[in-house]
Please model this.
Amino acid sequence: GAGVSQSPSNKVTEKGKDVELRCDPISGHTALYWYRQSLGQGLEFLIYFQGNSAPDKSGLPSDRFSAERTGGSVSTLTIQRTQQEDSAVYLCASSLSTDFSNQPQHFGDGTRLSIL
Amino acid sequence: GNSVTQMEGPVTLSEEAFLTINCTYTATGYPSLFWYVQYPGEGLQLLLKATKADDKGSNKGFEATYRKETTSFHLEKGSVQVSDSAVYFCALNGGKLIFGQGTELSVKP
Model:
């Protein structure tokens, strides 16, 4: 398919474990975003990557969260020493650029993370 | 900073009723504005967008007009269907999307 692909679709893990979430953006999209959707907080921005520029990490909630984007394509969001409050749906999106003007972001179906 | 405020839900309507979901924003500069929709069990989908003042975005019978003077981007549809039941998110794009809290719409036959 031509859309944003995320894996796994569901992840259940024990508190204290590390998890890795993967995002494969739409081919040719230079901007990639991670968001988190949770009941209490709605949709929150986490981090974005634009080309070879330094990522904007201003939304990461703690230093347990990190993300990489290798080769300007696939991205991995890593959460270390998971806590129960990390339980949420993690959404990835991509767009042609971060130009303010008009580029919409296209979302994947998300990874539902549950911390026991 | 940038922010978006949406009308609280849930909103329950009968089929063929008129829909308005209010959205107002606070922003520096002139961001693009979007409505996204999330159908039950599905991911976020772009519904419509507007990139400058007085632009009207439209799709699937939904419309929203970018009103700079009232800093609003209200979503409207003249006649809703059961299939429109979903959660609707207003968002502004200042490089990253800032979302409203979402409004759940339920349309009854």
